[in-house]
Input
Amino acid sequence: MVVLSKIYTKTGDAGETALGNGARVAKHSNRVAAYGTVDETNATVGLARLHATGDFDAALARISNDLFDLGADLCNPDLHKDATAEYPPLRVIAGQVARLESEIDAMNARLTPLRSFILPGGSALAAHLHLCRTVSRRAERCVVELATMEEVNPEAVKYLNRLSDWFFVAGRIANDEGSADVLWVPGLTR
Output
């Protein structure tokens, strides 16, 4: 269990922070940027939840929890010490990716195929889900960039890739199952 009795520690005042394995790195490091952008994605999920109810809210709550798992995964670079550690680091697993795929398939089955790109908007929930989608795409880019320099759990990359798709399809569901989607009209204002 985590116990946070004091919020500020002053240990980051010189521009460094601690990773999950205790190593100190610059706050602008690619790893910190990656899990920081995952945290930002989670904040947008919190905004979307303000407009969600029932099963939608429950799904977003699961995703929010998964994003904390993902942040914990990314803040601990010791992928090969997992099996021997006294307290193995938390890692995103294939089952979390599979759950997103299953939910995407179930939602997509309720929608008519798109014949145009859609613009963010429609309902308040859909607009917030599109914000979640774009921020999660940025998080994915950060994690993919990190993976070119350091080892990253491949399931973390897969999870973010599926997550942005989940937000896209969920945004359509939130727009009366696609009937209230705002369609792009190429060259409309020329």
Remarks:
- The longest helix spans residues 124-147.
